[in-house]
Structure formats: structure tokens, C-alpha cells
Amino acid sequence: MREKVRIASGQGFWGDLPDAPVRQVEGGPIDYLMLDYLAEVTMSIMQKQRSRDPNAGYAKDFVPLMKQILPACVERNIKVTANAGGVNVEGCADAVREVARGLSLAGKVRIGIVTGDDMMARLDDLLSRGIELRNMDTGAPLSTVRDRIQSANAYLGAWPMVEALNRGAQIVITGRATDTGLTLAPMIHEFGWANDDWNRLAAGTIAGHIIECGAQASGGNCQFEWRSIPDLANVGFPIVEASPDGTFVVTKHENTGGRVDTPAVKEQLVYEMGDPHEYITPDCVADFATVQLCDDGADRVRVFGIEGRPATDSLKVSISYSAGYKAVGTLVYAWPDAYEKAQAADKILRARLERLSLHFDQVLTEFVGANATHGSLAGEPARDLAEVQLRVGVRGDDRNAVERFTKEIAPLILTGPPAVTGFAGGRPKVEEIVAYWPALIPKSEIKPHVEVIAA
């Protein structure tokens, strides 16, 4: 058993800094590279891509990245855990295998494939057996939107990835797994933690939570003394140095920008957290109220004291469905009386929509630069604002009505208040709304499948 394992975060979301994983591999010693690509809406995007092209449906950025870093990973025995597989894990794995062969690494790389999260083909069977997949927020049964569903995936935990690592995989590719599981799995594999060692599993889960959003734990998006964060242009992504007893240190490579300190780690800890006593994952329930932090030197925060409880008998399901159409148009009004002009333009626009008998589920107006961020809490804006952006959005089931709205923005330039600009982007586009449906399913209904293939 190793005394310490270094797990580096390389991506906080699909679209994060492209060179961050490369810098993690080349910037100093690490044992694992964790890459988190998926969010709730990402799954529906990938499902749409695959419907148009059966070879698509995964994070395409992952493949050229592996071409860039795979030789170094093989040479230094760096393992990779990534949920880049999206809704086409096998296709992603095949693409990576071709990359390995093109790099003359055939026979030197084993790829773990974790599937079983995709529930699209099983929905009708589940509903027919009384598994209603009720919306966790509203209580409505999934049958009410069955004909509009685009994707449905259960959140798998760390254990299928552990199995892949135990079977010799150097690269583990999953679909919809928990973000935290990508970090927890290497710890379980390396330290041999039992599946009921709740305190250690909770510690690994919290370690994963801290680094799942990339540089958000190393100075990025930091509210506390953000002006003093050094060299964010070269920000170092976080690394967890984990020990067998469940304690760990959050750090980053030397000679990189950003900062790892207790305020930054605390900010990430409360990110997307509900009840701090019950952070529920497929692997355990972690108690965030037990987390203890202390500085451990420059850019080092030690985390310890974490307690956990047994996992629940359910898995969370992420479902996306079509929920109508939307369009957003903007114009910028300049001083003098910028805010008053923007307000007048909004009233004119709404009157014209009413005259045209256009009906929407919602019409939302924001005055960017005046109160868009804080709403009514912003108070009355200053009268001498240099400029205000009028941003109006509509949503509804009638695509034709939304399309007609897009034609009403540009005319305001010559038929509304003066000193307007900001229409260089052209007529707004009509976009389909993809809504999120969270639900629970008994764990007994989900059977993860693990395969390990040679490149």
C-alpha cells in the first residue's frame, strides 16, 4: 500500500482550460489525473449529437488531449479517470484506443469502460412496473413528460471505476458517474478501503468535491481577497495528496499561479451543498459539518476529521426533456438617461407583443448594468449610468410566437428611445429549452457493467 497518492484535477467542466491537464501531467509528480466533463445539460447535448451521428455522443476534446499526454502518462504510470464517455462510452474508448495505437502504444495501455448508467431504452419498462421516477422538486411522475425526454442517466458511484482499476486499467472512461467518484475511486483502489468504511469513503468523497471544479479550489472564482490571488493567467489546478487513513492535503504544483488556502477550499466546500450533514452520493453520506481544515504550509491545506454514514438504497437520476423554445434579444442604451431609455424600450416592446397577440409562458426583462445581477436588492440605479443593456427573453411552447418576437428587437433602434447600439450580433436565435428532471431509482434497478480492453 502506498503511503500517499497524488490525484490531480485537470478539468472542472467540458470547456475548461484546454492546457490544464497537460500542465498537471508535466508540472510535477502525480499518480492520477481526474477529468470531469459532464453536467446535467451536457448529457442532453451529447444525446442530440449521437442522434445525428452514431459515432458521436462523448467529449470529443478528450481524444486529442489523450494524444498529447498519453505517452507521458504511460512513461510515468499516471492513471486517468474521466467521465468523458457521455452517452457513448464505447465510442470514446475506441477513439482513445486508436490514439494509443497511432502513438505506437499498442499493448502498453489498458482502457476501462464503465457503462450501465444510460436508462433511455428502459424508461417504458420502468414506468410500466410502477417505478414512477417522480420529480424530486415537484413530485410529478415522469409519465407527464415521457414523450419529450431527451436523456436519462443514473449517477454511478466509485465502485465500478474501482473494479476497472483493480483489473489493470490505466485509463477509466465512464458515462454519468458522480464527480466525486472520479477522485474517490483511486483512493479505494490504492488503499483497499472497504465498502462500509464510511468515514474514509466520506473523506474521499469530500476530496473529490473539493477538486471537481478545477481551479475553483485554487484561487479561481474566489470571493475572498480576489484581488490578491497571484497570476491567474497561469493558475495551477488543485491536487489532492491522499493518505490511507482518509486525511488529505489540497495543494498544487510549484511555480504555478493561483493560491490554495483555507478560504478558497471553504468556498468550494459549500458549492452545490444542501444539508451539510447529508451530502448523499452512491457511495456514502458525507457529513460536511465534520470537516476540519488547517494550513499546512504555502499552498497546502490539510483536511481531516471527516465522518460519514451508510449509503442510501437509491441512485439519483438525471433526466432532460424538451420544454419549449426561447429567444433572448439585447440592445444597449447610452447616457444620458440610459436606464430610463432602456425601461421605456421595454414597455414599448411589451405593448407591441400584446398588440400582435403573442402569448408566452414567460417574458423576462433584465437591465444589465443597473440591476440584472441583484434584482430588487440593487436598489434604485444611479441616474448617470453611462450605459445600460436591455436584455429581454421569452419562452413558450409556440415556436412561431418565439420566432416573431425575434423580429421585434431591431425595429426599436429607429422606433424607440435614442442613443441605442449593441445589435451587431443580429436577430436573436430561437433555441430549444432543455429542462432538468431529477429523480430517484432503487439501486437494484441499475447494473453497472465494467469492461477492460487493451489498446
What would a concise description of this structure say?
This protein is of the alpha+beta class and 455 residues long. It has 12 helices and 19 strands. The longest helix has 18 residues.
Protein model, in words:
- The protein has 455 residues and is an alpha+beta fold.
- It is built from twelve helices and 19 strands.
- The strands form three sheets. Strands 11-12-8-7-1-2-3-6-4-19 form a ten-stranded mixed β-sheet, sandwiched between helices. Strands 5, 14, 15, 16, 17 and 18 form a six-stranded antiparallel β-sheet that branches. Strands 9-10-13 form a three-stranded antiparallel β-sheet, with helices on one face.
- Strand 1, helix 1 (20-26) and strand 2 form a beta-alpha-beta unit.
- The mean pLDDT is 95.
Quickly list its features.
single chain; 455 residues; alpha+beta; six-stranded antiparallel β-sheet; 19 strands; 28% helix; globular
List the helices and strands and how they pair.
Layout: E1 5-11, H1 20-26, E2 32-35, H2 40-52, H3 62-76, E3 79-82, H4 89-102, E4 110-115, H5 123-128, E5 149-154, H6 159-166, E6 171-174, H7 181-191, H8 198-211, E7 239-242, E8 248-251, H9 262-269, E9 279-280, E10 285-287, E11 292-295, E12 301-304, E13 307-309, E14 314-334, H10 338-355, E15 362-368, E16 387-396, H11 399-406, H12 412-415, E17 420-421, E18 431-442, E19 449-454
Helix pairs in contact: 1-3, 3-4, 6-7, 7-8
